[in-house]
Every structure is written in structure tokens, then in C-alpha cells.
Write a structure and sequence with these properties.
The protein is an alpha/beta fold and 290 residues long. The chain folds into 3 domains: 4-141; 148-220, no CATH class; 228-289. The chain is 51% helix and 12% strand. Strands 1-2-3-4-7 form a 5-stranded mixed sheet, with helices on both faces. A two-stranded antiparallel sheet has the order 5-6. Helix 7 packs antiparallel against helix 8 and helix 10 (222-246) packs antiparallel against helix 11. The chain is elongated, with a radius of gyration of 24 Å. This is Transposase (putative) YhgA-like domain-containing protein. It comes from Sorangium cellulosum.
Length: 290
């Protein structure tokens, strides 16, 4: 089962189709043809490989008025060893090349230096002269994005930077740059990217950013306000349960679930007051509808 981090990394390349070409050229020094559009194509390669095996993403670079494919890039996110990959990666490349009839590159993305070395091993296909050497984007190849304007122009790259370098000394600066970019994102990306960035930062950087958001930092965005509000709701819900338990009241599972599911601060405030006087935890919920 792919992890949340794996799926989030894949989404970065799908949400910004030019990112694969940018990383090939800027980070890995691979020549990329001039193109007018980068398009996400189907990564279902079930004509040859089983339906449960498909590339993470396939990006096709298009040129001219006819939108002719100039290059295809198979993007594979790899966070741990998988002994199947040396066998299926050549299939992904050849099948994508056959489908789009253009030169095809294999770009493997990882945020683990050890995995970068594992992924870089040449794959001997067994055919004379055909040795597939994956192009690997590891943490060392990802730029450190601490400039707010650059983060605004390429938010996916800012998130990738946090994943690769958020545990280092630049973690705080990377997080601040992302906050500047977060305001310009749609709600869904803002939520997903924001959680991903904050979870990637070292503890000190995360505490600093949380303090900035609570204090109304100048780069405060809708994401920051949302993040702070979620924290207040979570703390208030926990306070309700803690109060009940401190009074020696048994909290049934359905009551606990209902309290933790609440997103209404006014409701939670009411429950905190009720928790001080009721004699049965179930009375907490009956008061909400009275």
C-alpha cells in the first residue's frame, strides 16, 4: 500500500507537469527538448504489465501546433527497496515509448540518500547493449527553496524542498517561504501541501512556524489560519474528555467519537462547561440538541 508521502510526491508532479522536465534539466543536467506544453498522460500500462502495476506518473512534453510528443518522462517515486522495480522499470520505459512514439526517460524520485544510491544501480536487461540507468532525483538534487517569490512561482518545488531538506538547518526558512506561497493555492492543495510541509520540518522549525502563525505573522495565509483553528479545536475537544475523566466519569466510545469529530468551537465551549456539572457523560450530547 503506497504511503501518504509517496502519494503526495506523485501529486506534486501531476499538479505541476513541468516539474519533471525542470528536475531533469536543472537538477540532473539532462537535456530536455523545447516544448510548448507538459501534459499528464495515463500511466496505466496494463497492455503488458498486470493491472496492479503501473507507473506513478507519465508526463509527455508536446511541441508545435500539432502537439507532437517530443519526450515522455516516466516518474517513479521510490521510498523503499522493491526488488520488482528492476524488472518493471524497463517495461514502463519501453511501453511508454511505444505508446507515444518518442524518446522516453525514467525519472526516479526519492527523499532518502540511501534509496538514491539503490535506485541509481544500472539495470542489465539481458539484451546486448541495453543497460538501463535510472535518472535519480535524490535530496541532494532538490534545490533549497527559501525565497518567497520562488515558492509562489513554484509551490510544488517548495514542497519538494521541504520534504528533502526540512530536517536540516534551512527547515525554518523553507517553511516561511511556503507560507508565502500557501495563500495563492486552492483550498485542497493548500491543505495537503501545508500538512506535508509542516510534517517534514524539524521540531524546532515546526514550533517556530506554528508560533508565527498564531501571532499573525505577515505571511499568514488562509492555510495558517486554518491550521491554527484546527489546533484550537483539537485542544478544546481533548479538554472536554480530560475534564470528564478527571471527574471519574466513564466516557463511552460513541461520546468520545462525537466530541473528537466536532469542528464547532462554540459547541465545544458549551461541552466544557457542561462537563463540569453533569453526572453522566451521555448527558453531554443530549444537551447539544436541547
Amino acid at each position: 500500500m503506497p504511503s501518504v508521502t509517496h502519494e503526495a510526491l506523485v501529486e506534486l508532479f501531476k499538479n505541476r507537469p513541468t516539474l519533471a522536465a525542470e528536475m531533469l534539466q536543472d537538477a540532473l543536467g539532462q537535456p530536455v527538448p523545447a516544448f510548448t506544453e507538459a501534459r499528464v498522460e495515463s500511466s496505466d500500462l496494463s497492455e503488458i504489465v498486470p493491472s496492479d502495476r503501473r507507473a506513478d506518473a507519465v508526463i509527455v512534453l508536446l511541441v508545435g501546433e500539432q502537439q507532437r510528443p517530443a519526450m515522455a518522462i516516466v516518474v517513479e517515486v521510490q521510498l523503499g527497496p522493491d526488488l520488482d522495480k528492476p524488472y518493471v522499470w524497463p517495461v514502463y520505459v519501453t511501453q511508454t515509448r511505444a505508446r507515444h512514439r518518442c524518446p522516453t526517460r525514467l525519472l526516479v524520485v526519492t527523499i532518502d540518500p540511501k534509496m538514491a544510491r539503490w535506485c541509481s544501480q544500472p539495470i542489465d536487461t539481458g539484451h546486448p547493449g541495453w543497460l538501463l540507468v535510472p535518472l535519480v532525483l535524490g535530496p541532494q538534487g532538490v534545490p533549497v527553496i527559501t525565497d518567497a517569490e520562488l515558492a509562489k512561482a513554484a509551490p510544488e518545488l517548495a514542497v519538494l524542498s521541504a520534504l528533502a531538506h526540512g530536517q536540516g538547518e534551512a527547515g525554518e526558512a523553507i517553511g516561511v517561504a511556503f507560507l508565502a506561497a500557501a495563500a495563492g493555492l486552492d483550498e485542497e492543495r493548500r491543505a495537503v501541501y501545508g500538512d506535508l510541509v509542516l510534517s517534514s520540518l524539524n521540531a524546532a522549525a515546526r514550533r517556530t512556524l506554528e508560533a508565527m502563525m498564531k501571532a499573525g505573522y505577515e505571511f499568514q495565509s488562509e492555510f495558517a489560519r486554518s491550521y491554527v483553528a484546527k489546533g484550537e479545536i483539537k485542544a478544546k475537544a481533548q479538554a472536554v474528555l480530560t475534564f470528564l475523566e478527571a471527574r471519574g466519569l466513564e466516557v463511552p466510545a460513541d461520546v468520545r467519537e462525537r466530541v473528537l469529530a466536532s469542528t464547532d468551537l462554540a459547541e465545544l465551549d458549551l461541552w466544557v462547561r457542561r462537563a463540569a456539572v453533569i453526572n453522566d457523560a451521555r448527558e453531554l450530547l443530549s444537551s447539544a440538541t436541547s
